[in-house]
């Protein structure tokens, strides 16, 4: 029996017994956070100064920084008439598996291009990169899942760069997830720097052509704005130990902007724009500096805030910012009660690699290696045991 349900049930009962206590703590923290949000809404200079002080103590500080709009600002769409070319890209991957008989990786990026309000059929394309041989050992070490994900993120943004070349008029491009590339650890750091340089180069090319680009974060878990409120609340001693200071641990940005009974954002409204303060800001400078806003893509009575990340060149051009806002609202409305950008959904459907397709690639590689008399390995006994018909235990 894989799970001791008797032990689990006892633990669940203990969890249930503390529900009232947790609920009270959460309600108190939420009320205080909401009150602070309103109280400091117009105190932009004070907020920025407090963040600067906190950065001196913790250079890895991650939080929101107000730009030029009050915290409690809310903006509806300005012009629903959208005239732009929309491009969405999403990627999937196959990670190298040391238990498999053939070692390989794969990046598959699906993209959709559509001319808004034109009636034209969207153009669908895929770009596939097979990773084999020496490419599986960058810097002499096995390619990690993290580096495969980095390659995928770079490939997604590169596809947007390529497809947007020579297009006339406004172009809006988006991917799923943050724009910011997450760092790597240990030996992966050398490879991360290489991918980061290429990635920043792609962003620079998009900026030079005035292309709107964004990262759409569905159901965000970050507390960037809430963390800003915690920093503002902290006294001098607490600032010195900021990593341990979390009075609003039970409060999320998603709740703050989308509280069901009294959301800060009405359906279709965006929040103020914030700059992202993080240890990686040195990688995205000038027009590439990363910003974000929250957008309620839900309906009346069912708020659903999402985080939209954008570089500064989009923030600085209000026409581009307003166009992006309108595009995302329209795209999310196309999927009805489960709002999500329609083109991103289509791009994901195009990009996903099915298990049968993975087996076909393995077989094609096997056949080609056999034809050329190249040595082939065998799958591990562990994987063989897992594949036994009806086996359920590890």
Any overview of this molecule?
- With 394 residues, the chain is of the alpha+beta class.
- It has a domain at 22-74 and 215-314 and 335-347.
- Helix content is 41%, strand content 16%.
- The protein is built from 13 helices and nine strands.
- It has helices at residues 5-17, 19-39, 44-57, 145-163, 188-208, 224-233, 236-240, 253-258, 312-315, 318-333, 342-351, 355-371, 381-386; strands spanning 63-66, 85-94, 105-115, 123-131, 171-176, 212-217, 274-277, 290-296, 305-311.
- The chain has a nine-stranded mixed beta sheet.
- Helix 4 (145-163) packs parallel to helix 5 (188-208).
- The protein is globular, with a radius of gyration of 24 Å.
- The protein starts with a helix and ends in an 8-residue tail after the last helix.
Notable features of this structure?
9 strands, alpha+beta, 394 residues, globular
What's a concise summary of this model?
By secondary structure, the protein is α+β, with helices and mostly antiparallel strands. It has 13 helices and nine strands. It has a nine-stranded mixed beta sheet with strand order 1-7-8-9-6-5-2-3-4.
């Amino acid at each position: 029996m894989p799970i001791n349900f008797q032990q689990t049930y006892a633990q669940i009962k203990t969890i249930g017994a503390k529900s009232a206590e947790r609920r009270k703590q959460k309600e108190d923290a939420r009320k205080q956070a909401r009150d602070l949000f309103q109280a400091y809404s117009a105190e932009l200079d004070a907020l920025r100064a407090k963040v600067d002080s906190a950065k001196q103590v913790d250079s890895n500080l991650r939080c929101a920084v107000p730009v030029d709009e009050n915290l409690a600002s809310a903006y509806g769409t300005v012009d629903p008439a959208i005239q732009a070319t929309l491009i969405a890209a999403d990627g999937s991957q196959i990670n190298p598996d040391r238990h498999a008989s053939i070692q390989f990786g794969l990046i598959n990026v699906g993209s959709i291009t559509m001319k808004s309000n034109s009636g034209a059929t969207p153009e669908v394309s895929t770009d596939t990169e097979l990773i084999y041989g020496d490419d599986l050992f960058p810097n002499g070490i096995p390619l990690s899942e993290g580096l495969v994900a980095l390659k995928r993120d770079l490939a997604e943004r590169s596809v947007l760069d390529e497809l947007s070349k020579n297009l006339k008029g406004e172009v809006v491009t988006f991917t799923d997830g943050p724009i910011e590339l997450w760092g790597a650890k240990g030996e992966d750091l050398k490879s991360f720097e290489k991918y980061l340089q290429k990635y920043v180069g792609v962003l620079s090319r998009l900026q030079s052509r005035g292309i709107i680009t964004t990262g759409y974060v569905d159901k965000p878990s970050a507390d960037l704005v809430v963390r800003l409120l915690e920093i503002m609340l902290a006294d001098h001693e607490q600032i010195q130990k900021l990593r341990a200071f979390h009075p609003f641990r039970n409060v999320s940005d998603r709740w703050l902007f989308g509280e069901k009974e009294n959301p800060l954002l009405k359906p279709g409204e965006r929040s103020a724009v914030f700059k992202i303060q993080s240890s990686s800001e040195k990688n995205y400078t000038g027009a590439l500096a990363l910003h974000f806003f929250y957008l309620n893509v839900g309906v009346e009575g069912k708020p659903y805030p999402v985080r939209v990340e954008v570089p500064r060149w989009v923030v600085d051009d209000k026409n581009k910012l307003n166009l992006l806002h309108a595009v995302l609202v329209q795209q999310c409305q196309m999927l009805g009660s489960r709002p999500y950008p329609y083109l991103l959904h289509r791009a994901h459907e195009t990009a996903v690699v099915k298990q049968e397709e993975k087996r076909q690639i393995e077989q094609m590689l096997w056949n080609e290696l056999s034809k050329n008399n190249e040595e082939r390995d065998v799958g591990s006994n562990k994987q063989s045991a897992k594949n036994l018909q009806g086996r359920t235990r590890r």
